[in-house]
Fold this sequence. Notes:
Pfam families: tRNA_Me_trans, tRNA_Me_trans_C, tRNA_Me_trans_M. ATP binds at residues 26, 119. Residues 197-263 form the tRNA-specific 2-thiouridylase MnmA-like central domain. Belongs to the MnmA/TRMU family. Residues 138-140 are annotated as: Interaction with tRNA. This protein is α+β, with helices and mostly antiparallel strands and 367 residues long. The protein folds into 3 domains: 5-180, 3-Layer(aba) Sandwich (Rossmann fold), CATH 3.40.50; 204-266, Adenine nucleotide alpha hydrolases-like domains (SH3 type barrels, Roll), CATH 2.30.30.280; 269-353, Elongation Factor Tu (Ef-tu), domain 3. It has 8 helices and 16 strands. The chain has helices at 5-16, 45-58, 68-84, 91-110, 141-144, 149-152, 164-173, 195-203; strands spanning 23-27, 62-66, 116-117, 122-124, 130-132, 155-156, 208-212, 218-222, 249-254, 259-263, 270-279, 290-295, 303-310, 313-322, 330-335, 342-353. Helix 1 packs parallel to helix 2, helix 1 (5-16) crosses helix 7 and helix 3 (68-84) packs antiparallel against helix 4 (91-110). The radius of gyration is 22 Å and the shape is globular. 43% of the residues are buried.
Amino acid sequence: MSGGVDSAVAAARAAAAGYDVTGVHLALSRNPQTYRSGARGCCTLEDARDARRAADVIGIPFYVWDMAERFHEDVVDDFVAEYAAGRTPNPCLRCNEKIKFAAVLDRALALGFDAVVTGHHARLGADGLLRRSVDLGKDQSYVLAVLTREQLDHSIFPLGDSTKADVRAEAARRDLAVADKPDSHDICFIADGDTRGFLHGKLGATPGDIVDATTGEVVGTHEGAYAYTVGQRRGLDLRRPAADGRPRYVLSITPVTNTVTVGPAEALEVDRVYGERPVWTGGSVPAADVECEVQLRAHGAPVPATVRVEDGRLVASLHRPARGIAAGQAVVAYRPDPAGDVVLGSATIATTERAGAAGSPASGGTH
Length: 367
């Protein structure tokens, strides 16, 4: 129970369905006052109090589990290390993988519980397959696609058949004080929302060059390549405008040379994505090419693709080019289904390329 409306209603529904429910709030910060406050996060002291009050209203036992050290090692340290390596991680995805459905689930099973219930907007069908929520605007199946078949077998997502408006209305009917609490935004462990400043505090200043991909000229400098991500346009502070006057975007980040490469928007286009460490949420590794859709960022639109397994990697050949695809994000494959799109599997994006464009900034390399 994070202290938000979704997890409160999920707990209430589980209790109303007759389950023996215990509420658990995760203390994830070594110093809770350094995490987001003002009812905007999921790790604050206010959130813990809100979760406890919701549990009291529902009438279930409530505990706080201290997982600050595990969270710092598996999520915060990983976040910093990924940016230092020129990648753009998704900490919510990592938290689901390492904390909520690994550390928490393992402890719950050891204590004799059968499953972990969360307020994620996603569905588990009668066949046990993970599907998108009916509320596509709130769908969170993308950040759950790292879960294994065994983890899903011990998971319950009661909200997948409801819209967010339905959830808030139900919370009000149940007299849950969090009915109108704002959703959490941004990254919970960055108190002021300044990701660049947070990374600077962890990694320090590492000045380097910003290079134009077309001319090879140095067109600016930076204080740390970790402050940039593929597809970024704002905040580049380039000294020399492009010859054609068009805006330039970050095309790639090369930690070895501490270089940020920029160029025109069309140079961002890729049509092949390679993912490492695939997890086949559907339960089996595809034996042949699969026609499906892939989602390449948390709130990105699905792209038709052909997915196959090659040397243990997930390879997605996009049917139309996509722009601004960053290494470190997830590629999630979905199979269209009349009952709702089914998650086939996911992988961490390692490299991308444009077919027939070998040697371009978007070919191979770290983005």
